[in-house]
């Protein structure tokens, strides 16, 4: 649990983002919290980031709120997609409707990802009855970059440390976007 420098609330790391000042004096997000600089943890919402415009937390640092908000979302999305790619390489990720259905039937799916630009059909009811979290944050083009297939709509992950880490990253992105797309 970490205290937000803006609200003073104690929140989980999933609910916050670390911001650091570069040697050049720019404020940047530190998504993985591993940059070698003193950071400030703030609640990971557009509203909180917007309120930084009126705070003196960063002193004379250059703070472009609109650019910072866009950069945070882009980096959070990229981090999730990178974790998906690592999951594929470790064998935790399957893609394609039949493979996802097989994993669900075997009760081995810990997380299902469905492209948000796919047509919803009755066969997607399969996900709901299995009570597995379904994520619809990414479009087919983004998902297709994970395993170089041309049109990926369905993915599922088996349980594992990387899946837990991905689920946490997805929660942070969802929290930031302020859209609850995890069923």
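-> sequence recovered:
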């Amino acid at each position: 649990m970490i205290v937000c420098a803006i609200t003073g609330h104690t929140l989980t790391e999933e609910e916050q983002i670390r911001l650091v000042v570069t040697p050049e004096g720019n404020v940047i997000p530190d998504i993985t919290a591993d940059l070698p600089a003193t950071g400030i943890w703030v609640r990971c919402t557009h509203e909180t980031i917007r309120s930084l415009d009126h705070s003196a937390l960063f002193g004379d640092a250059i703070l472009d709120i609109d650019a910072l908000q866009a950069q945070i979302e882009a980096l959070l999305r990229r981090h999730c997609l990178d974790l998906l790619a690592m999951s594929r390489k470790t064998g935790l990720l399957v893609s394609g409707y039949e493979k996802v259905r097989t994993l669900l039937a075997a009760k081995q799916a810990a997380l299902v990802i469905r492209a948000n630009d796919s047509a919803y059909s009755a066969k997607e009811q399969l996900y709901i009855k299995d009570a597995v979290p379904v994520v619809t944050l990414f479009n087919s083009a983004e998902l297709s970059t994970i395993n170089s297939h041309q049109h990926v709509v369905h993915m599922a992950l088996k349980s594992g440390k990387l899946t837990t880490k991905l689920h946490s990253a997805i929660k942070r992105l969802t929290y930031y976007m302020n859209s609850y797309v995890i069923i």
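Residues 84-177 form a domain with the 60s Ribosomal Protein L30; Chain: A; fold (CATH 3.30.1330.30).
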